[in-house]
Amino acid sequence: MSAAALPRAAAPLLGFGRLLRRYGFPVAPEQVSGFMQAVTLLGPRSMADIHEAALATLAPPPDRRDEFEAHFQSHFYGNTAALVEGEADEETRIKDDGGTSQEEIDVASQEEGGELSSGAEQLGVRDFRRDGDGLAAFRRKLAAALPARRSFRTVRTHTRGKLDLRRSLREIVSADGDVPSPLLRRRQTVPRKLLLLIDVSGSMKLHTSDYLKLAHAAVQGADRAEIFTFGTRLTRITAALRIRDRDQALARVAALVDDWDGGTRMGPTLLAFLSVPRFSAFARGAAVVILSDALERCDHAELEMAIRRLSARAFRLSLATPLAGDPRFQPATAALRAILPVLDDLVDGSSISGLTDFILSLARTAPAAAAIWRRVS
Known about the structure:
With 377 residues, this protein is of the alpha/beta class. It is 42% helix and 15% strand. The chain folds into three domains: 3-87, no CATH class; 136-144 and 192-376, von Willebrand factor, type A domain (Rossmann fold); 153-189, no CATH class. The strands form two sheets. It has a seven-stranded mixed sheet, with helices on both faces. It has a three-stranded antiparallel sheet with strand order 2-4-3, covered by helices on one side. Helix 2 (29-42) packs antiparallel against helix 3 (47-58) and helix 6 packs parallel to helix 15.
């Protein structure tokens, strides 16, 4: 049942489920449906019944129970005091633009080795109305250049296929027993997903505009591209980038993302991405490209854990860092040394032309990042 067809009284219940998902709670659509059914069965006689139904069906994790209670108070009672107090913790916030493949869309010169990197949250806004880049050719070539995989779906073929026994027998029956040419089928070859994870922290502010333009071209050129930004929060921006006009798309992204030019919590935000099953599924079998300087000010153990888990899901995991544009660059930080053996690629992310060439080459095999950087050093 669509949201428009629901009774008016059900809107706050549906809205509460959406609110929890926006803040990273693993709430499935079936749980929201169960929540509304439970409230119906209970009457409800009081708000306590709604509260008990929410706890029983939406099942907040024990370590986030206080946050769940704060959201319940804010949503149903308008009491934002507890919610504001909860914002002071280090919990990574997740923001989903709500888009899926089925839904329609409404229409400083040098980098000083990490001095701009910080772990503190700082919210801000961006303006992307500047243009000029030459990404049209990249957009045209992308779909054909991505790595491919064999789908479980099949298509008819005249050569090099397996016998389609069911349809061949149907043809024999329709031809009164004559034996026509056998019908063959083969498995389709489809492009793999492309997942871009873009660092929008303060240390990357010189490159954010170009990366977002590249992301827009990727979404327009590939049917199965997914884009996320991260800094101190995680935001899915794919739906906004499906708007054909780039200026409109980037204006919508600018309004959607809250943590422009702030601190960096790369490890926690990537772990937050992996903690949401729907997001984690985007990485399965995909070509994953992280656009970041990887200057993690926090303990790099969380970053290493996240990169290893991403690598286990991805077809190919690449890190494009603008720091590699300096000929003297070496992956010498503790974080880079820890994740280098897991990466398939560690490449220069300082220019759009270099990045587009790299993404268009993802289907071609290359030595592992650790082997290349051992030779360089």
